[in-house]
Amino acid sequence: MMFNRDIADLAKEKGNAAFVAKDYATARSLYTHAMTIDQLNHVYPLNRAMANLKLARWDEAETDATKALELSPHNVKALGRRAAARRQLGKWRAALNGRHSRAKALDLFLISRPDVQAFIDHGGDSTYAAQELKAIEEAESSSVPAVPSSDSKNLSDAFANLLVEDGTSSYTIRDSPMLSKGAGAFAIHEFQRGDLVLSEKPIFFVRNDSDRDEFSSIEAKIRNLSPGNFDKFLSLHNSHAECACFPNLALGIFSTNSFALNGNSGICLAASRFNHSCSPNARYSFNANTGVLRIYALGRIPIGEEIFVTYIAGRNLYGNTRQFRQNLLSTRHFTCACPVCSLPEVESKMSDARRVKINELRESIAGLSHTESTQRLKVIVKGIHLLKEEGILGDADDFTNVAGIVCAYHSDWVSAEYWTRFTYETRVAEFGVDSPRAAEVRGVYVNPKSIPMAGRGPRKKFTNIRV
Ligand SMILES: C[S@@+](CC[C@H](N)C(=O)[O-])C[C@H]1O[C@@H](n2cnc3c(N)ncnc32)[C@H](O)[C@@H]1O
Fold first, then answer.
1. C-alpha 335 to ligand 1 mean position (Å)
2. Ligand 1 mean position, distance from CA 308 (Å)
3. Residues 310, 223 share a domain
4. Angle at 290 between CA 286 and CA 295, to 5 degrees
5. Strands 196-200 and 292-297: what pairing?
6. What is the ipTM of this complex?
7. pTM for the whole structure
8. Do you know which PANTHER family this protein is assigned to (predicted)?
9. Pick from 8, 89, 206, 288: CA 20 to 30 A from residue 258's CA?
10. Please, are residues 187 and 150 in contact by the beta-carbon 8 Å criterion?
11. pLDDT tens track for 22-68
């Protein structure tokens, strides 16, 4: 079981690995995470000071070193890093001109050989310079490198996480007006129904086992993340920051951001920035064959509009009320503020009624017999219209799939083709042409006569029943 201080330490370790790999920006960001999680450990600002020095962020390096000195007074490495920053900031001149006391000089620009040399070159006191050199020698002989390299190989071996393919050119992440605090994804070019918004591989996933096993497997996966992915993972939103639902923040982040991936739960760094709506304009799906999660536009999304997916699994977007959906979302620890859940009372009740009705219609299709085919098709059309009226842009195939079977049963091949095409095109637009969902219905779309009950019923025409 990991606690927050272990997560902070892991961030530092991965920061060190990034540092060794000369990825100073990632190292800096990881040390920042460590500092945010554990504000009392001097090593984190000490290491960030070093990363800031490498990034020529002199002011920040000075501040970090000062912070490390507050937590660990007289720390030689912190003094050295602050001195290096101050030298770059030109502050050593001020120290020399002022002929400060040794203590003040220490504070201002200790401790490196070039500093002492500069001090002498600028007319500094040679006795003091000798004292400084002695101090440097002592410090060097007792110094342990702050950035370990010994275990960096193990860590870099673990970098083999799946890489993210992120189509960020089509959307941008910024603050969402729907939320009091938090980001969302916004279109930066116009999407049409069926356009791919995003395609990425999860950085890791775990099997949906019992809670306890799940915790330890999540922690094991987190330990194995590359520094870059761990940094991005720690940057994700945590809805559980204020509650005590989980023993550490990594588990809170996992719970806030995990996607259902074909019986597993996983983290997709880019998709994690998409907020939920009960009438989403996009949908995510995971293709187990390719291991890729994709988000497709369900309708036109103009430039600047927020792109929403739904976190509600299965067919639960309709057939229920706002309250019911809120209960489903409560495990994610937020109150849904989507446009549907923000409707005024009267409109909200109408929405609830429509959603319940959509499901009633869907269920009634199965209750109608072969002799009631016209009625069945009419219910299907009504269901699709009601879905549209409610702003549910997906799931029409829940209805049209049966329509193809009905028409093929009565040997109305023109209508069967119309409905099987409708189903196939719906699935291609919502899940992708290479998705298992599209593959399931491709055969009957290509040849409606391959539907098992095809041609078995009395001949009948339904060409007047269309959406
Ligand atoms: C996967 S994250 C989505 C991105 C997140 N907003 C961010 O800033 O990174 C899920 C979290 O976003 C917020 N969120 C998403 N959809 C929401 C909605 N419909 N209403 C309120 N909060 C929502 C909640 O805090 C939720 O736990």
1. 9
2. 10
3. yes
4. 35
5. antiparallel
6. 1.00
7. 0.85
8. SET DOMAIN-CONTAINING PROTEIN 5
9. 8
10. no
11. 999 999 999 999 999 999 999 999 999 999 999 999 999 999 999 99
